[in-house]
Amino acid sequence: MQWSIRVFDMSDLRIVGVSILFPGVRQVFRGRVAEGSLVLGVWLGFGWIVLARWDRVSRAALGPWDHKLALLTLGLGVLSVWMWSLLSERAAEERSQGARGVWALAWSAFRKSRVAVSAAITVTIVYLVALLTPFLAPFDPAAQGSLLTERLLGPSMLHPLGTDQFARDVLSRLLYGARISLTIGFVAVSISITIGTLLGAISGFAGGKVDAVLMRFVDMVISFPRLVLLIAIIAFFEPSIFLIVAVLGLTQWPQPTRLVRGEVLSLREREFIQAGHALGFSRSRLILRHLIPNALAPLIVAATLGIGDTIVLEAGLSFLGLGVQPPTPSWGTMVADGRDNLVGAWWISTFPGLAIVLVVLCFNLAGDGLRDALDPRLRS
Amino acid sequence: MSLLQVQDLRTYFSTDAGLARAVDGVSFEVNEGETLGIVGESGCGKTVAALSIMGLIPSPPGQVMPESSIRFRGNELVGLPEASMRKTRGNRIAMVFQEPMSSLNPVFTVGNQIQEALVLHRSLARRDARKIGVELLNEVGIPEPDQRFDEYPHQLSGGMRQRVMIAMALSCEPDLLIADEPTTALDVTIQAQILELLAELSARRGMAVLLITHDLGVIAEVCDRVLVMYAGQIVETGTVEEIFVRPSHPYAEGLLRSIPGTSAGGDRLHPIQGSVPSSVDWPSGCRFGDRCPHAWDRCTAESPRLTAPPGGSPGRLSRCLLTEEPRRRVRSAAFGAT
Fold it and tell me: Which residues of chain B does A270 touch, with a Cβ-Cβ cutoff of 8 Å?
């Protein structure tokens, strides 16, 4: 109880009431306008979902897995909004004055860049939307309307982004496509970063023959044109989302490997690694606990930029018909679908194209901001 | 029986220029609870000798030659597999390094790092490890140890960090602490405090200390016995009094004369001319020959062996032909005058 009072503003029932009903309003009146209105906006979005899509929300717990995931996201989202709005400012201040590690310093540098913060917020919101898609999408993305009356309709109230040549709602397809594109980007980069980190750390730490063999292998993989490699692999197997994630993830590890190896090469000469040896730490402990955490900063930047690249690559593969197979929507396939009707029905290709540009741009801007924040040499 | 016995230690590195004989036949003993100093210029092999004892010589290119013997409590350490060496390291023998600024991992709190060592070596629960860690910080003289425990290395001063390093080394209750120039990177007042701390800990815990330094002042302050190293070899051993009052080897003499304020009879410092030769190519004969003011033709012809100078304490040795032919000593020879 002591704890909850210290961290949360529970001193007044009115504060608790306002915070729970309209989170963010209190912060707006105290001068934190941007933060407060953002949280209020997210809150209103959640509220709209619950009110307008009550039929789906109420049955989500028993529905398919993506509905369950959306419900979980909604619940966690509401909870975090409440926690944030109840968090007392005094506690936040106390914390920021306490011990400040490397991450705390990086965070304070990062939040100074408006562009990077806006980009990061946009990316977060896009991911949130992707997770909540089962509640948000007005229609089933694969359901076709009447091919006679509802084909190639322009934007309207019923279909805000119009319909495509099969009379499917473009907005719903865009939302479901976001799920596919963002998941592929995230998972593929996670795979490649994990592999790259381990291989790079081992290579840099072991040195000698191990290093030479691993690095020549990396050179070999890098020297192969990636798109050709991807097309060749995909041509051999039945295209599926899992295949694309695996192939994208398993062809991207050489770059992080090199990055981590370079970091480790310089880190392993530092005295704390020698001190670790002297304290009798095992090699795996030194790599996992002491080298990798110190190499994390450039890795996070590489991962952020890598997600953008991967989304573009996936869109390219899908555009070529080698990626996600119809009727499953992905932004790449949607752009490809609309290219025959670009003159008459511009909305089919334009909106997914804009979505790709927006997300990739935001990832790159956030990545640049992270680089500036995490690299002390660039910090002014 | 002595705690650590080093017999004919040879640590060689293969380099592009040839075989570097960084440590070339060094023998000494460290007794329980004693503080032994190793002194010498940079490049004499002091640090390599210490790293050889710890089994931390990077291999390749380095190698502790198989004829060497390092016995800790009678157990041979040379040729021990890495896994069993790791048990000795940090557990029975601990080491403190020169550069406290970079000896701590910057991304974790100091407490976290002390805890890690405690959990690993003493298999304590994390909560107990915290308690003991705070006690250790208190023992090494860190004020407000409970708060410092949760701070990051960059929030501490150099002296504080070196204290933390000592606390980490102590965390496993070692019998022998090797301190490799522990005070070089610190300013003078802090140096004195750290040395005092080492002496105090050694006395309280009965822990032997092997103190490596290029600073004779440090030796005078805390050591019982001294080894003077030059060019990968021991050139003189003795008690602190003997080395300071009656240095036998011209190199030890030269080191003493190059300390500000102790050079007798003048304000000028008397540095030893030249620098340590390359370990790839030690000079034949006496390795100090070409820098020695007393050197005569015999010095280039034969390599002097460690012999006991007259009137020394047991264990006092000097690697100089002057012990055989004392009349060759040039009385007025000032270093630098040649």
Answer: 102
